[in-house]
Amino acid sequence: MTGSNRNRPDFTPREARRRYLDHRKTEASASSIKSWASRLKRFCDWADDQPDIETMRDLDGWKLDEWENHRRGQGVASSTLNSEMQTVKNWVEYLARIEVVDDELPEKVHVPEVPDGEESNDEMLEHGAARSLIKSYRNGPDRATANHALLELLWFTGARLGGVRALDLDDYHPGEQYVEFRHRPDTGTPLKNDSDGERAVGLPASTCVVLDEYIDRYRSDVYERGRQPFLTTARGRPGENTVRVWCYMATMPCLYQDCPHGHRRDTCEFVHVHHASKCPSSLSPHRVRTGSITWQRDQGLPAEIVAKRVNATLEVIESYYDKATERQRLERRRRPYIENLQFDPED
Questions:
Q1: Are residues 102 and 215 in the same domain?
Q2: Among 98, 183, 256, 346, which is 20 to 30 Å from 151 by CA?
Q3: E-assigned strands of 122-262?
Q4: Rg of the chain taking only CA atoms, in angstroms
Q5: pLDDT at residue 205 above 70?
Q6: How many domains does the chain fold into?
Q7: Is 34 exposed, middle or buried (0-12, 13-18, 19+ CB in 10 A)?
Q8: pLDDT category, 274, cuts 50, 70, 90?
Q9: What are phi and psi of 124, to 5 degrees?
Q10: In whole angstroms, what is the distance from residue 107 CA to residue 97 CA?
Q11: Is residue 245 within 8 Å of 283, Cβ to Cβ?
Q12: Who's near 128: CB < 8 A, 6+ residues apart?
């Protein structure tokens, strides 16, 4: 430390976290801030239990390596550990710039590389399972419930949880058969990429029939912050965790087949709202999104079109979301152009 640092605040990890997040708010999306806050909170919780870490000046290469080993010992995925350590490195770089920690400290943060093939989790809602689930809902007693409406929206738009949750009643256009995703941070529903995430996404006619029925039969006529949410609880717009639980419940395979884990649906604790996430086969909205993107590509939609529909870059789709097999990729390349490659041997 230089002599001038004697006048700098001796931040605790939590104070340094708050300072960093406040600094980044003007240049990053709300969802990014939320992710960084969660990752750094884990570090601060760990630091609270370390008797030799009272302020950020107590950090050194050894303690940073201890944090990395702690998270690795908890069995987190390689991609998760990579993201968390990169966030810590960015945080420490900021603190070094404002002279809260030594200039050399950022270089001591190790960001592990992600092994080839482990960049993302391949778990997703498979096309066949999605088809069976939607067919079961459309032909069953739970037709047009909130769980069913959510599954239709997630699958046929490929949208993120936050995007579907943000929809208002007037964002749905049944006559033109599309939904409109809009960035409205002032009233609690930002999109991941801010205004760049705004878009209109077409829906199949059969999905619109379901959504119309949901509105007529199950949607509560509620207002929240001057708006009418599309998906509702009795009290207003559902929270993110509520939507996530609805998705877990909507993707249980026992809705259309015998339980793959040997349970009976009428006695299984996982069908309860408080335990749905513990079902080994239920899936989060992110896994439905992954499956939807793969399916849209396999149906022949060009990558550029899918990218616009789901608000992702081509690179991200190809690297993290598109889980097609090599055979499926071959079919995609072949279908539109194979006839151009044929010739008559007698010509």
A1: no
A2: 183
A3: 172-173, 178-181, 199-202
A4: 24
A5: yes
A6: 2
A7: middle
A8: confident
A9: -160, 165
A10: 13
A11: no
A12: none
Q: Which tokens sit at 74?
A: 């908890």
Domain identity same for 46 and 153: no
The pLDDT value recorded for residue 80 is 83
Give residue 33's Cα distance to chain centre. 14
Quick one: 164 and 258 in the same domain?
yes
Tell me the residue range of the domain where 207 lies: 127-308
Q: Which of 108, 137, 171 is the last residue of a domain?
A: 108
Label residue 115 by pLDDT band (50, 70, 90): low
CB 13 within 8 A of CB 43: yes
Looking at residue 342, what is its pLDDT?
47
- What CATH number has the domain bearing residue 148? 1.10.443.10
Cα 228 to Cα 222: distance, rounded to the nearest angstrom: 6
Residue 91, in any domain of the structure: yes
Alpha-carbon span 65 to 69, nearest angstrom:
6
pLDDT for the residue numbered 333 = 60
pLDDT for the residue numbered 118: 45
* Same domain? 37 vs 82: yes
What would the pLDDT profile of 301-345 be if each residue is shown by its tens digit?
888 899 999 999 888 777 666 555 666 666 656 555 445 444 444
Q: pTM higher than 0.70, yes or no? A: no
